[in-house]
């Protein structure tokens, strides 16, 4: 019996190893790729974040291309209107700043330098300027306001409105719909506290405001497409 066990032991180990190796491809396929986040869409591509970097893939599907590869965290990708550029946020130089990179990849260009930190939010409709949020002018308590800056770099211009964390321009560029504040926990459903502020349409020329109907619901991430403003909301509980 001892001789039989000694003879079978190496054989059984080999069988177990073969079975394990056979299962690995199936386990990999079952798990798949996870945590693909923050999608932005152009006419031909979808860009997104995964593992702290930017990736892009054709809208028709296929293999994703890695646009950035750093030890830093890249986030908030936003395609330019013509789909040739991607604005994004990165902390590769320390604090968060706004960068722009070709949709085909290459060396990113840094646009903002304030120690207050900035976050990419989008583009003007003509594609000449990048929209970003920054606390650079708020004191003594920091809060965000919206700015635009030329895609080539240069002087930033502040949009009207006393507070703004996200925004999206109207098709004619004359107005912007604004989400004023960030939430400490945006996934906290049915919250009806003071962090919930109504989305506001602001006229760029004179700062005139129109608030969207809101009963302390959590309305976030506004996007202006054609004559319609789309946003996320928990108003239906």
Integer average pLDDT: 88
Backbone structural class = mainly beta
- Percent helix range: 10-25%
Strand content: 35-45%
Please compute the radius of gyration using only Cα atoms: 24 Å
User: End-to-end distance, in Å?
Assistant: 68 Å
Topology order in helix (H) and strand (E) letters: HEEEEEEEEEEEEEEEEEE
Number of strands: 18
Sheet with most strands: 4 strands, antiparallel
Strand adjacency order, main sheet: 1-2-3-4
Question: Helix segment count?
Answer: 1
- Shape, per Cα inertia axes: globular
Low-confidence stretches: 23-28
Can you describe what's shown?
The chain has 1 helix and 18 strands. Helices cover 13% and strands 37% of the residues. By secondary structure, it is mostly beta strands. The chain is globular, with a radius of gyration of 24 Å. It has a 4-stranded antiparallel β-sheet, with no helix packed on it. Strands 5-6-7-8 form a 4-stranded antiparallel β-sheet, with no helix packed on it. It has a 4-stranded antiparallel β-sheet with strand order 9-10-11-12, with no helix packed on it. 27% of the residues are buried.
Summarize the structure.
By secondary structure, the chain is mostly beta strands.
């Amino acid at each position: 019996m001892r001789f039989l066990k000694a003879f079978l032991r190496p054989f059984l180990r080999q069988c177990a190893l073969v079975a394990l190796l056979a299962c690995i491809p199936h386990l990999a396929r079952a798990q798949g790729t996870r945590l693909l986040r923050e999608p932005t869409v152009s006419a031909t591509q979808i860009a997104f974040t995964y593992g702290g970097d930017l990736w892009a893939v054709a809208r028709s599907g296929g293999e994703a291309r890695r646009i950035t590869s750093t030890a830093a965290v890249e986030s908030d990708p936003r395609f330019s209107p013509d789909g040739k550029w991607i604005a994004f946020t990165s902390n590769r130089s320390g604090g968060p700043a706004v960068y722009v990179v070709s949709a085909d990849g290459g060396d990113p260009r840094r646009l903002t330098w304030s120690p207050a930190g900035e976050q990419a939010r989008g583009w003007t409709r003509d594609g000449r300027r990048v929209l970003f949020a920054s606390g650079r002018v708020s004191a003594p308590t920091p809060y965000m306001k919206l700015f635009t800056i030329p895609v080539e770099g240069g002087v930033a211009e502040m949009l009207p409105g006393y507070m703004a964390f996200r925004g999206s321009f109207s098709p004619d560029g004359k107005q912007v719909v604004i989400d004023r504040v960030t939430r400490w926990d945006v996934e906290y459903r049915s919250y009806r506290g003071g962090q919930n502020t109504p989305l506001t349409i602001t006229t760029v020329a004179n700062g005139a405001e129109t608030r969207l109907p809101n009963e302390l619901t959590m309305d976030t991430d506004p996007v202006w497409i054609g004559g319609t403003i789309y946003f996320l909301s928990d108003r239906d509980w």
